[in-house]
Amino acid sequence: MKDIENASLLTHNTFGIDVHCRRLLEFSSADEACQIARDLSGTEDPYLLLGGGSNLLLTGDYPGTVVTPENRFEVTVFSRPDDPDGVFLRCWAGTTFDEVVDYAVQLGYHGAENLSLIPGEVGASAIQNIGAYGAEASELITEVEAVEISTARRVRFSNAACRYGYRQSKFKHEWRDHYVITAVTYRLTRTFTPKLDYGSIRRELETKGITEPTASQMRQVIIAIRRAKLPDPQVMGNAGSFFMNPMVTEEKFKQLQALYPDMPFFRLPVPLRQSDGTVLTVKVPAGWMIDRCGWRGKSLGRVGVYDKQALVLVNHGGATGAEVLALCKTIQHDVDAKFGILIHPEVNIK
């Protein structure tokens, strides 16, 4: 286990924010995670559970302990007699998620192709319920292994127990900072059933003369689409899509559609009933609204909105987390003023 005092977090967040933490603990096994949990439960010092930092905005130095898994590739493949088409990949929490997707495609295990090139690590996929191009990690996750910080005991959670929703899970809310994830198991299939009807996937395949793509061709096309729309964090600091796409009621949708007939939208396959009785039926692209507010390609000091995708906020170099947060709040204000919708960050802000 690595134990570093006054550690830099510059390489632990894809936004490229140069901040420090008082202490950095990197665990390389579930046993070490248990040891860390015992240490954390015996102190009142704050702590932050961190993966690859691809969905994080650090607004300043962290005054406590940062806990992170060792970044290494570790995948165990197994089958179950009662599931002949299924193949299961048990992955170490610190494994880069896209390496898992690449590994699966090469071995002929299917279902993760649409999640190609999403940044971050396996542990974060179970917290954030990462998704893209009509697919979500929750469709694949069968089990999450973790260590409970208060008791230092190992626990396992089924998919249902995690209560997954759009970029949501209990790990982001009720269970926030209560568990250190150590491994995630995904169920893939030996049968390839491509998902083509989201975004420009089918069109991009057709331009290449491909009507019945292989899994490898699907992966390469999705990688190309993402690279054309999203900046490389190694070149320009960012956390991918910064805002979630908001969901609205049918009444609100009709009001917006009357004002903006060209507005793109996605109708939810199943209406979502809120605790207050409100029923949400349509998802509206936050990027489209940000673009209509004139923000795409614009900057506010050392931060800005990516010129090819308005959902992405970028660090032009040397920006602080506070500067990114100020841009976030300005965009939220402008979208609310124009459309009457409050958009919420997808990234975790610390």
TrEMBL record:
Q: Which reaction does it catalyse?
A: UDP-N-acetyl-alpha-D-muramate + NADP(+) = UDP-N-acetyl-3-O-(1-carboxyvinyl)-alpha-D-glucosamine + NADPH + H(+)
Family annotation (InterPro entries): FAD-bd_PCMH, FAD-bd_PCMH-like_sf, FAD-bd_PCMH_sub1, FAD-bd_PCMH_sub2, MurB, MurB_C, MurB_C_sf, Oxid_FAD_bind_N
On the tree of life, the source organism's domain of life is Bacteria
- Per UniProt, the enzyme's principal EC class comes to oxidoreductase
Task: Please list the residues that make up the active site.
Answer: 167, 241, 346
Q: Which cofactor does it need?
A: FAD
What pathway does this protein act in?
Answer: Cell wall biogenesis; peptidoglycan biosynthesis
EC numbers listed for it are 1.3.1.98
- A Pfam family annotated for this UniProt entry: MurB_C
Residue ranges of every copy of the FAD-binding PCMH-type domain listed in the record: 17-191
Q: Which UniProt keywords apply?
A: Cell cycle, Cell division, Cell shape, Cell wall biogenesis/degradation, Cytoplasm, FAD, Flavoprotein, NADP, Oxidoreductase, Peptidoglycan synthesis
PROSITE patterns with a match to the protein in the record? FAD_PCMH
* Compartmental location: Cytoplasm
Q: Enumerate the GO terms in the molecular function aspect.
A: UDP-N-acetylmuramate dehydrogenase activity
Q: Report the function annotation for this chain.
A: Cell wall formation.
Homology family? Belongs to the MurB family.
What protein name is recorded for this chain?
Answer: UDP-N-acetylenolpyruvoylglucosamine reductase
